[in-house]
Amino acid sequence: MTAFRPDRGRDRRRVLHPAPSGIPDAGCLYGHRRPHVVVVGAGIAGLSAATGLAERGVDVDIVEREPYIGGRVGGWTQTLPGGSVVGMNRGFHAFFRQYYNLRNLLRRNDPGLHRLIQLDDYPLIDAGGAVDRFRGLPRTPPWNALVFALRSPTFSLRDLAKLDSRAAAPLAAVSVPEIYEQLDHLDADRFLQNINFPAAARHLAFEVFSRSFFAEPTDLSAAELATMFHIYFLGSSEGLVFDVAEDNFDDLWAPLRRYLTDKGVHARTGTVRFHTRVSIASIDTAGSTAAFHLTDDTGAGIDADGVVLATDVAGLRTIVAGSPTIADHAWRERVQRMGTAPAFAVLRLWLDRPVATDRPGFLGTGNLEPLDNVSVVNHYEHSAAVWARRHGGSVVELHAYALPDEAQIGEGSVRLRRQLLGRLHALYPETATARIVDERLLFRRDCPRFAPGDHAQRPRVGTPEPGLALAGDGIRIDLPVALMERAATTGWAAANHLLARWGVAGHPLYTVPTQGRSALLRRVANRERRMHNEFA
Ligand SMILES: Cc1cc2nc3c(=O)[nH]c(=O)nc-3n(C[C@H](O)[C@H](O)[C@H](O)COP(=O)(O)OP(=O)(O)OC[C@H]3O[C@@H](n4cnc5c(N)ncnc54)[C@H](O)[C@@H]3O)c2cc1C
């Protein structure tokens, strides 16, 4: 059996959320057989849920619409002109050290996390050429934020003095979930204006934060921004340096898939089967001998004792709309009200020339629309590095978030591509004369919306339907987690939810502290909240 050592990080103030207690193995709970759960969606959330269930003796079928697993962090291969087979994926992802629950998933079959490598620095540059850097920052709050602010060309000591410290207190004293009561009615842009945050720094540091939720600061909840600031900056001493996958994302998930399907080798007892290219259309709770009957869009069906819906928002809405017998009307309506963020584009270029050697693996940009970031993929991804070496070239990826609908079609997409290339040539002039050997432009719109007011409406992991749980980065969980880590945490929590129903032990979760680290700032923030409530 593989000994699994959980990732606890280095922050001594991280929080352990203990595993719910129960029997260790679901065993023969159903007489002669184990319970059987269908997990719909094989992104991070679905894979976490499946792992959590299988390790406690539940039989799991994972059903995935795409031909690959990993969801938005999935990878596949494609053939370039000339016959080279190269890796392709949905774009650059930063794996932060405070992603404890995601790292614990990856550790299942890669205990040393050798498939992740550290990216030493990721500069942020704005239209005026001002650059913020993360290299060499202290890890411990508040020194990380202070040194970042003092070093930043967009933030002066005078700016610091001008901050409205009372209005800004919630930023430094985030408490989850209370922060949503305080700030979810506001948008991030308005909040930063209210606290006198300097405009240049707003564009650079905070726009990058908010646009990583694929939204403009005016469309992002201030509570989500503050929670992000807490997770990555003031609430954790794991630091702002992150890891990236050292190869295409399929390399990240293949070992986990083996871990889940190889029988008898690992510390799990349930049987796991993957079904790719299968799209679930509906779930029925009536008329079948099993608790649930799931039907795919070809009409084929599968019975289950429990279900985890770990799809993206659109997938969840479609399935729930087709399933009038599950849960209740109010809950189904709540699901239909979930929103998606605007579309984004990922343009990957295979160039016949290298970029300058000192170009960073990842560069964030502010105020350089439509460009949000540039990655030099061959600086960190193994298969891209092999291609670049063999061809004396480079592999570069450009992201553009929060796009208007017209940017995705016809002349709009041609213009977007042209603008992105123009930005690249201005930032990295050596690329202007490079020939594009091949390119892929992807448009997607499958990230959840985190607009003001969304939080209270968001469905939670547990549902009114016994035996049905939700997971995904758009699902509410009142813990300080975001993006990939929210996907992983809700996945483990969905497994725990179903296991608890059967009296089976769950899995522990870890998070950054659930409240701000400074008692003084917490007191100021609490006073502010009380005053706000009195006047509201
Ligand atoms: C370009 C980009 C960059 C990002 N960068 C970062 C980053 O740097 N750091 C970070 O933390 N996060 C980042 N994210 C966010 C991160 O990708 C997501 O938070 C995370 O992958 C969500 O995982 P999930 O399992 O919740 O959803 P998904 O990955 O979307 O998984 C849902 C799965 O359900 C499947 N599905 C949907 N409907 C059905 C159906 N009816 N039947 C069967 N299957 C179905 C889908 O095909 C999909 O595989 C980024 C996202 C994008 C797009």
TrEMBL record:
Amine oxidase domain span: 44-499
Any Pfam family hit: Amino_oxidase
Top-level taxonomic group: Bacteria
Coiled-coil portions: none
GO molecular function (one): oxidoreductase activity
Protein known as: FAD-dependent oxidoreductase
Species classification: Bacteria, Bacillati, Actinomycetota, Actinomycetes, Mycobacteriales
